[in-house]
Amino acid sequence: MTSNPTMVPADPTVGGHHGWRIVAALAITSTIGYGTLYYAYAVLLGPMAAGLGASTTAVTGALTASVLAGALMAIPVGRWLDHHGGRALMTCGSLAATALLAAWSQVHTLWQLYTVMIGIGATGAMVLYEPAFAVIVSWFTPDRRATALLAITVVAGFASTIFMPLTGLLAEHLGWRGALLVLAVIHGVVTVPLHALTVRQPPPAPTTTARDAQTRPDHHQRRAIVKAAMRDVRFWILAATFIAHGAATSTITVHLVGYLTSLGHPATFAATAAGLLGVLSVTGRLVLTGARRRLPVTTIVAAVFAIQAAAVLAMPLAAGTRAGAVITVTGFGLGFGITSLATPALLAERYGTTAYATIAGRLAAPVTTAKATAPLAAATFLNHGDIHRLPIVVAVLCALAAAGMLTHRPHPIAT
Q1: Under a CB-based contact definition with an 8 Å cutoff, are residues 251 and 374 in contact?
Q2: Helices 56-84 + 356-383 axis angle, to 10
Q3: What is the pLDDT of residues 198-223, one digit of tens each?
Q4: Of these four, 104, 111, 234, 278, which has the most CB atoms within 10 Å of its CB?
Q5: Which helix (H) or strand (E) holds 350?
Q6: Cβ atoms within 10 Å, residue 411
Q7: Helix, strand or coil for residue 53?
Q8: Beta bridge partners of 2
Q9: Is the pTM of this model over 0.90?
Q10: Do 338 and 214 contact (CB within 8 A), yes or no?
Q11: Which helix (H) or strand (E) segment is 84 a member of?
C-alpha cells in the first residue's frame, strides 16, 4: 500500500470557495505574523539594547533562542495539526502571540526579554508558515495546491517590506515600547478573528460514502505513515539538503551587510542590496511555480541552488563594484524563499497528506535549528578576520544542497 492521501481534500467545486477564503486569510495572517514576531526585531534591536543597558550581542541572542524554541515546537505542532486541524491551534497561538508582544514592550531585564522571545518563538510555530501550509495541503487537490501556497508566500514575502519601515516609523515617534504595543494591537485585531472564523476542516469530497467515512485515517494509520517516512533514506537526504540550504541562507541574511561593507561599500548601499533578498524570494517562488509544469520540482530547485552557489562564489571577485554586488545578490536571492514552496510539494507527493503536518514538523525541527545556529557559527570566522572565507563556506553548502536535491525522488513510498 502507498501513502497516497486517504483523507480526500475538498473538491475544487464543493467547498472550494471557502478554501480560497482561507488562502486569503492565511496570506494576511502570515504577513502580519512574520512582520511583528520576526522582522520587527531587527529594527528594534538597537533601541532595545540601549534601553535595557545590554550589548547588541546579548540582545541578538534572544532572537536565536526564539527561533530554537520554534524548532522544538515544530514536532508537537505537526502532530496536533494532523489530529485536530488548525483552527483552535492557530487561534490560541494568535492570542498568545498578541499577549507576548504586549509583554515584550514591558521587559526591563535580559532574562525577561529571553523569556518573552522564547514564548514568541513557540507561538510562532503555531501561526506561521508550517501550520498554514498544513491547512492548505488538507484543503486543496494537488493541481490547485501549488497556486494556493504560492498566493500565501507571495503576499507574506513582503512582510519585511511592510513591517520594517512601519516598525521604524512607530519607534521613531513612540519609542520601541510604544511601537510594540501598536504592533500587538495590529496582530490581535487582525489575526485572531481571521484564524477563529476562517480556518476549519475541509468538507468531505462529494463521492464520500459511509464506508469511506469509516476508512478515514486513524491514529494507527498516521503512525504507520510517519514511521515509514522516518525509515525512508530519502527523507533524511531531504532533511540534510534543507539543513545545508537553510544554514546558507540564514548566514547570508545575517552577514551580507557586513560582508559588503568589508568590500568598501557604504552601509546604506549594503543594506539596500541586502534588502533585495526579500523581493527576490517572491521571484524565485514564481519561477518554481511556472517551471514545475514542465520540469520536476527537484530539478528546478537543484538548478536554483546551483545558481546560488555560483553567485555567492563569485562575490569575492565581482561584488567589489555596485553592479557586481547587485548581480551576485540577485543570483543568490532567487533561491531565498524557494524551499517554502518546494517542501510541501515534495512531502505531499512522496508521503501523501494523511500525516503531512507531523512529517513536516519532523523536517522543520532540524532545519530551523540549523537556521538559528549557522549565523553564530559563521560569526567565528568574522571574529578571526576570515570574512572573505564566508562566500566559500556558503557556496559549498548550496552545492551540497543542489546535489542532495538531485538524489531525492518524490514518488510515493510504500508503507
Answers
A1: yes
A2: 170
A3: 998 776 655 444 444 444 556 778 88
A4: 104
A5: helix 339-351
A6: 8
A7: coil
A8: 414
A9: no
A10: no
A11: helix 56-84
